[in-house]
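User: Predict the full complex structure for these chains.
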Amino acid sequence: MLRRVLYIDLDRKESFVEDRYDLFEEWLGGTGVATQLLLEGCPEGADPLSPQAPIIFGIGPLTALFPAMTKTVAAFKSPLNGELGESYAGGRLAMAMRFAGHEAIVIRGAAESPCYISIRDDEVKIKDAASIWGVPATVVGYILRDVEAGVGRRSIIRIGPAGERLVRYAGVVVDTYRHFGRLGLGAVFGSKNLKAIVVSGTEDVEVPDPKRYREIYNQLYKTAVKTDAMEKYHDIGTPINVNVLNQLKGLPTRNFQESSFEEAEKISGEHLADNYLFRRVSCAHCPIGCIHIGMLKTSFSRHHEFEIRKISYDYELIYALGSNLGVTTPEGMLELIEACERQGLDAISTGVVLAWATEALDRGMITEDETLGIPLRWDGVKGYLEAIEKIVKAPNDFYSTLARGVEAASERYGGRDFAMALGGNEVAGYHTGPAFIFGLTVGVRHSHLDNAGYSIDQTAAKKPLTPEEMVDAIIAEDDARGVYNSLIGCLFARGVYTPDKIVEALGSVGIEKTKEDLEILGRKIFEEKYRFKVREGFDLKKLRVPARFYETVSTVGMVDPDTIETMMKIYRERRGWD
Amino acid sequence: MFACSRINTGRASLDRSAIKVKTQGGLEGDFAVVICRACKDPPCVRACPLGALEKREDGRVVFKKDLCDGCGGCADACLIRAISMDAEGKAIKCKHCGACVAFCPHGVLEMEEVEE
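Assistant: Here is the predicted structure of the two-chain assembly.
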């Protein structure tokens, strides 16, 4: 098995590879290893946008070997909330790293002027990127395709203007349609003058027992393709949730003022699939094809001159740039998604920030003096498009504050009660109930994917769960996902990879672990992440839950603040923190 | 492209055009227009050992053909591939004259002032 960590130093323009058997033995790979590299590589209290703060990428022992083991983890110190930055992306990056022979990459220092990194097997070059600085994230992909080798097997990850200008929730675009979206990795790239990374490789992966490997592979493949374990991701895709959550009163609308949207049907997965979907693509080595590409026909002159823009859409984007901004047309929503793609912005954070600004303007907390005459109002797509550009260009104090996230904006201008962030991270698209709110509060990166509280709430909507049961379910998910994110699998395939199957898959590639081993490891990984969080100043006791969560009816009815407090008490006990 | 070569070199040529229009592969497959974007810190200027390329205060990067010895360093330095070499071995470089815009009947090309 590969055990290699590639270290790249942008200050000195040099790189070297180190074998880190110790790390991979103990922590498996993926997020387990990346967390350790972050703990050892990021000095305590480092400014997230300083050369001291490293960027770490990791893949895992099952990468490129099994279906849907497609993710790469990025670990960094977040410039958005100042603590653990962690984000996952699909595309081709994980495969490219595997074939280049690097299971982890650590980038340190900062380049003096714009650069990009080209990694081809063991060859690492730091190249001049002055000619692509300022270029939209979408276009950088086309340009580097022509100048770099490895057609069909490489991965090209890059930032847009948002990352260059240090918008705290800028993301990194991976192979056109996937992203390290959350918590501001794009700004960390920008602070290092790093525009892009191209990775390709020619190695292959040997397994100790090909017969056993093939057997396990076939079982997993069948479950993924021939059962309904993943069907919803292929057919309508994640936007199937728009109608589902709308009916359940869980679809955040107009900045969580409501939890159902009267125009939801128009931006629903079904409507998009019937009228706008034109292609589905997969990450490398995934049989599903969940990436839904919509087409948007727009005219660029008055004389019937058209172009077709191809825009990838998913549930969270439809929430953030659709229902939560009251957007009633698929065209408007797709345009907003594309604007985020070009600028290289995280769509969820951008949508939440714009929703807060719309409500703040409506309530007179800010005026059009601040917005520079842009009339931010629900469904006002044109205004939102202009505002997105202004967030990136930061022409005045207001927009440069918006570029620091909704927490910073509401600290400055008020409206804390409807500034929809938990743990400093703008919230994902659910108002399902207490498990979602609590899950985001305690989750390691304050993401809905830490522990899927929204799913626990939906179970509770059918048969009520006690606070104890909800907390136990959250802890079980938190810990189990630490292991899964070390392999690293796509969370859409989590139903395929049961604990037994994970043990078998690891065994078939020569890593013998028991279910108990993995349970202990999951808990340890969680604790290590909290070690980083606490070291960087995170305090669970100081977390703020926006009052809006308690004012709007959710899937399980009105949420009582006492429930969240009760859950916190139980949680601290279960974690042994008191 | 014909407008560029016609107006700037007096010939009908695709190879001598400083604006390049091409199709591109990838998952999306579209037309692309490649044109000098007058970088803030132009790699082509840095790559030229003879001072044939110069960054002007108004932002333009201008090319002095008589100083060019055809080494091709500028073409290699430009990631977007906006510079090519002509049959005589000299660089073909956009001078931001707008000739192409005048002959684009479809509103694809526009000349605009850019800040910075």
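The interface with chain B takes residues 113-114, 128-135, 141-147, 176-177, 279, 281, 300-301, 303, 305, 307, 310 of chain A (CB under 8 Å).
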